[in-house]
Design brief:
The complex is a heterodimer of chains A (128) and B (498).
Chain A (H helix, E strand, L loop, with lengths): L1 H19 L4 H22 L25 H31 L26
Chain B lengths: L6 H15 L4 H29 L2 E4 L10 E4 L1 H22 L4 H4 L3 H17 L3 H19 L5 H32 L4 H14 L3 H18 L7 H5 L5 H26 L7 H21 L3 H22 L2 H32 L10 H4 L1 H15 L5 H15 L3 H27 L18 H16 L1 H16 L2 H8 L4
Antiparallel strand pairs in B: 1-2
Helix pairs in contact in B: 1-2, 1-5, 2-3, 3-5, 3-11, 3-14, 3-19, 5-6, 5-11, 6-7, 6-11, 7-9, 8-21, 9-11, 11-13, 11-14, 12-13, 12-18, 13-14, 13-17, 13-18, 14-16, 14-17, 14-19, 14-20, 16-18, 16-19, 17-18, 17-19
The chains are: A mainly alpha (128), B mainly alpha (498).
């Protein structure tokens, strides 16, 4: 089971990286979201898959059974999901704003803050 | 046990919350904000005096004992970071209260700054590595919003690069965290330190090193190190000047702080390659300073200099002797103040001359010599002239390289200092010395003269750090010794368990 899940996570990461390398902003935002989900899955699987052995001390026992799922990674993932949701929401809003202000969402054209000013020609570029 | 440690988190949270409630009353909100940061600064001073007294302060949140609960820890490094963060945020808020730029008037500005402050203090104080991640995210989220607050085209462009690369680095951090937890079964940094020292002794360091490398890449992105710095010069010059000053003072320094903790506490010993860190530090110094030399825009030059200064700090971290770590800590403090002040001065000057592009500026020295002097103090401090803070910082870093006989690093550090001076003089000549290209431009100050107050305050701190360098450096040296021997930190957090 771990091996299958590892392959699934690898494929998820590959898709996320593929999306991140695309030219359109929306694809990049989706790539970030997928990257977050792959990471959540990674944490989940890395902590071990133990079927349905819930970490609850049964009636009459004083300690957990020998094989029990560690609940902490799930708490971590829950936190990460909430944070991821907020960041995803912000990224979508940013992408929308980008299209509204710049009129396109082509990453190759979002270069104005990186290009050098030409000290000789005194004409301002449109965005600088 | 100390409840004092919760205050640097609670005070910004409270001021931010009340700031949101008072969003329709701009004046009330400003007073809340100023009161909040003053209290924070006072707590910073109290905290450092306690830590100087007792070496370590710990608080087990909710009474859950470490390593099961979340621990807040303050050693000297944390206390110093909190104090300097408080100083720069105080000056930036003072500056923004006196500016007429729209950013100062946006009802979201003050609460966001306080949330940023809360995230940064959390990162400095937490002893739990997952909490470090959460605090990073709080800080990032506020910084995203601050950067795009005015919604201009250039800010949107800068923010796209900033947001994407920082989210990528957060995902890498989280992945490393998951793998590390799977291997060591603990999130408490002191506990992880014990386990990873054991792993080094048993020579079973592989999986821990994997997680360590993921952390390393993530923190390097956040610190703006070579080769991961590209987001920084693409975005830091776009928001309004107070926000730039805030970012340069806090964000990259939190990345560096995390790197120090990783290198000295979480992964002690030779888990991370020391040569790799050293080479990256030198490359960061050189690339930053060359990048700055090619720019013709005030805040872009300053942004590239952030990168080159990070290089010095990383060199100090890599060498990892008490002296080198102490000089790295002193450098962080000096850099927060000097660099922040340069951004504020740049904002003030560009408001008056009407542009940040060097060929369109000029005439400031005649119109406004006070600002010229403040600029020179900060710029010379950055370049490392005595008797200013930069001299103490750079001298101690160079001394640490001499002590470890790393001559090539020493040569690179001195060379970078000279080139820093070149860029600083470029700004000086173009903005202050030459005449303004438009002879009819009105260069009078008007209400802007009030903003001299916060920048003079910071210039005063720069001189104080330089003149009082000896005793202050002794404190940093104590901090460096604490970092080199994590046993004290572990003892303070875990108590009798060790």
């Amino acid at each position: 089971m771990e091996i299958i899940m590892s392959i699934v996570i690898g494929v998820c990461y590959a898709c996320a990286v593929f999306l991140l390398l695309q030219k359109r902003l929306l694809q990049i935002v989706l790539g970030i979201a997928l990257l977050g989900h792959s990471t959540n899955l990674l944490i989940f699987v890395a902590s071990g898959l133990h079927g349905n052995s819930v970490p609850i001390i049964q009636n009459g026992l004083k300690e957990l059974p020998l094989i029990a799922v560690d609940p902490l990674p799930q708490a971590l993932i829950l936190t990460a999901i909430v944070i991821g949701l907020a960041l995803f929401g912000f990224s979508l809003a940013l992408a929308y704003r980008c299209v509204a202000v710049l009129g396109h969402d082509d990453i190759d054209q979002i270069t104005h803050t990186d290009t050098l000013d030409d000290p000789i020609s005194k004409v301002d570029s449109k965005v600088s | 046990m100390s409840n004092l440690l919760t205050l640097p988190l609670l005070v910004p949270l409270i001021s931010a919350t009340f700031g949101i409630l008072a969003r329709q009353h701009a004046n009330v909100q400003r007073w809340i904000s100023l009161a909040g940061i003053s209290v924070y600064l006072a707590i910073g001073f109290i905290l450092i005096s306690h830590v100087l007294d007792q070496s370590y302060l710990t608080a087990q949140v909710g009474g859950w004992q470490a390593p099961y609960g979340i621990t807040l820890v303050a050693d000297l490094l944390s206390a110093i970071m909190i104090l300097f963060t408080g100083l720069i945020v105080f000056s930036v808020l003072l500056y923004s209260l006196m500016t007429s730029k729209p950013c100062g008037f946006s009802p979201a500005f003050h609460p966001l700054v306080h949330f940023l402050l809360m995230g940064a203090s959390g990162a400095f104080l937490t002893g739990d590595i997952f909490n470090l991640y959460v605090c990073f995210e709080i800080m990032l989220m506020s910084s995203f919003a601050l950067m795009t607050l005015e919604g201009k085209a250039e800010q949107t462009e800068g923010a796209v690069k900033y947001v994407v690369l920082n989210l990528l680095s957060s995902a890498i951090f989280l992945a490393g965290l998951g793998l590390l937890y799977a291997k060591v079964g603990s999130l408490n940094m002191a506990d992880i330190s014990v386990i990873s020292q054991q792993a080094v002794a048993d020579e079973k360091v592989g999986p821990i090193r994997l997680a360590g490398l993921l952390f390393f890449v993530s923190f390097s992105v956040k610190a703006g190190m070579f080769p991961f710095f590209f987001w920084l010069p693409a975005s830091y010059h776009t928001p309004s000047p107070p926000v730039s000053a805030l970012f340069s003072g806090i964000l990259t320094k939190v990345g560096v702080y995390a790197l120090i903790r990783l290198h000295t506490l979480v992964m002690p010993g030779e888990v991370l390659g020391y040569k790799l860190l050293l080479t990256m530090g030198v490359a960061t110094m050189l690339i930053g300073v060359f990048g700055a030399a090619s720019q013709m825009h005030i805040r872009r030059i300053l942004s590239f200099h952030i990168i080159s200064q990070i290089g010095y700090i990383v060199v100090g971290i890599a060498i990892k002797t008490p002296l080198a770590l102490a000089s790295a800590i002193f450098f962080i403090g000096h850099n927060i103040i000097s660099k922040g002040n340069l951004f504020l001065v740049a904002g003030l000057a560009s408001d008056i001359v009407g542009s940040e592009k060097l060929h369109k500026t000029g005439g400031m020295w005649k119109a406004w010599p006070q600002l010229g002097i403040i600029y020179l103090i900060s710029a010379f401090s950055l370049a490392g002239f005595p008797p200013l803070s930069g001299f103490v910082a750079k001298f101690s870093i160079v001394w640490a390289t001499v002590e470890s006989q790393l001559w090539w690093v020493m040569a690179a550090a001195i060379f970078t200092g000279l080139f820093t001076l070149y860029s600083m003089m470029k700004i000086w000549v173009e903005v202050f010395w030459k005449d303004h290209p438009d002879p009819d431009r009105d260069l009078t100050l008007g209400k802007n003269s009030r903003r001299l107050m916060p920048v003079s305050l910071l210039a005063g701190i720069i001189i104080f750090l330089g003149l009082g360098g000896g005793p202050l450096f002794d404190i940093c040296l104590r901090a460096g010794e604490q970092l080199v021997n994590p046993a004290g930190y572990i003892q303070a957090v875990l108590g009798e368990i060790t």
